[in-house]
Amino acid sequence: MDHLTSRRAFARYVAASPLLAALGASACEERKDEDEIAEEAREHPGTLGEPDQELGELVTKAEDALDVFDMRVTAERTLPPAHYGYIATGVDGDVTLRANRTGFARWDIRDKRLAGIEKVDMSTSILGTRMETPIIISPTGSQRAFHPDGELATARAAKSQKHLMMLSTVTTTSVEDVTEARGEPVWYQLYATSKWEVTEKLLRRAEAAGCPVVVYTVDLPVPSNRITLSRFIKRDRRDCTQCHAKTDAYGSRNTSFSRKPMFDGLNMTNADFDIPLHDWEFVERLKAATKMKVMVKGITTAEDAQRCLSHGADGIVVSNHGGRAAESGRATIDCLPEIARVVRKQVPVILDSGIRRGTDVFKALALGADAVGIGRPYLWGLGAFGQPGVERVLAVLRAELRTVMALSGTRTIADVGAASVIRNT
Ligand SMILES: Cc1cc2nc3c(=O)[nH]c(=O)nc-3n(C[C@H](O)[C@H](O)[C@H](O)COP(=O)(O)O)c2cc1C
Predict the structure, then answer these.
(1) What is the mean pLDDT of residues 1-23?
(2) Burial level of 302, CB count in 10 A (0-12/13-18/19+)?
(3) Is 35 helix (H, G, I), strand (E, B) or coil?
(4) Tens digits of per-residue pLDDT, 361-387?
(5) How confident is the model at residue 259 (pLDDT cuts 50, 70, 90)?
(6) Where are the domains of the chain?
(7) pTM of the prediction?
(8) Average pLDDT in the 209-232 region?
(9) 141 CA from centroid of ligand 1 (Å)
């Protein structure tokens, strides 16, 4: 189909938007309707760059999604290419992005028969936050680019499904409104800028909103090279500059403040997100500056985990930003054992990047994580259907985890341990 001769595509072109660093409120006003999605599915039956068993199928109702990959296909067909590309992208050749998936395949699960488990209990508690399930919503920015309700839809889904939500600094909805929609405090993710006054004000605002934990992300001190995103942007026929600044694969993170409510009222002159000079003293500074617990997100080695402990971090998120930061080629599930060995349960460890099934959650718990985070899966649900899509993703992952726990003879999260998995290579 020629985009510019199609009535709908022309309307989309005129409405225009794409995203990126400065994604904003009007970003997804031109979502496709069901007929359009079905038409596009007929025209483009294939999907991009995913292993065969993870292709998924287009669905027209959230409850029809059999796994998170059905949501991915549906989100791809629903969202403007540049906005879907922002979710999909890794960096450079997307090697780390793919490694996050293949890493899980190197571990098998050891079944346990006749374990006499009547009811699986998935509840756990981390840094004083009680959770019904160890599946946490990892922080992702700019959610109104994927659905008009953005972070509110995610928070409402987190409430109805009883999951902990982490909220990004670059949220398109304020921490106060998200907390109200969630019905309980969220954990606040911090991108520190080069200006300490800005960081301090963000901390005060998160504290005032009741956040008990700040999650300090350390894996993006410089912009990353998001080539897949650039390729998707090239497919998008709309004029992105109507909504945000033109950008390249490296993004332009410093142009986005005006669209991000957490920066309202702050003097952002000379506040730079690119802060290669930050060091471990900054963790201590954060600890001294807030009454919130401080977790460090983006740790992938035992040495850095040890530094987290030495500098007083209250917890660690083993993460490579879903393969969107460094192109290390290393899956987080492969990083976890060495980190668990040095942490020795002194502080909680959460793992994200590549979690797509209940079996992945189980493997992470077995290898030393106390909980896991998901990023893209709930964004696919959000892009495809809004709140019901996020709810379905959470429900599917929970059901899958419950099943694998029962089949492995693990009644509680504490029962999932080293004996639950075995390396197959
Ligand atoms: C579209 C998108 C936006 C993200 N925004 C943020 C962010 O603002 N802050 C942050 O710490 N991590 C961010 N992340 C990384 C996630 O928190 C998480 O580490 C990652 O998505 C997990 O990998 P997965 O997508 O494979 O589940 C983002 C990820 C995606 C896909």
Answers:
(1) 34
(2) middle
(3) helix
(4) 999 999 999 999 999 999 999 999 999
(5) confident
(6) 3-423
(7) 0.89
(8) 96
(9) 8
> What pLDDT, on a 0 to 100 scale, did the predictor assign at position 275?
78
Q: Which of 83, 147, 311, 321 is catalytic?
A: 321
Tokens of 259: 């669209």
3-state SS assignment for residue 262: helix
d(CA 166, CA 164): 7
Please name which of 25, 19, 6 lies closest in space to residue 87, comparing C-alpha atoms: 19
Whether 83 is catalytic is no
Q: From atom 7 of ligand 1, which residue's Cα is the shortest distance away?
A: 140
Shortest-distance Cα residue to atom 3 of ligand 1: 140
> How far is the C-alpha of 386 from the C-alpha of 88, rounded, in Å?
18
Percentages helix, strand, coil for the chain, rounded to the nearest 5? Answer: 45, 10, 45
CA angle (263 as vertex; 240, 234 as ends), nearest 5: 15
How far from each other are the two terminal CA atoms of the chain, in whole angstroms?
46
Q: Which helix or strand (DSSP H or E) is residue 389 part of?
A: helix 387-407
Hey, which residues does 135 pair with through a beta bridge? 372
Q: How many residues does the chain have?
A: 425
| Residue identifier of the C-alpha nearest atom 13 of ligand 1 | 140
3-423, superfamily in CATH?
Aldolase class I (3.20.20.70)
Q: Which helix (H) or strand (E) holds 296?
A: strand 293-299
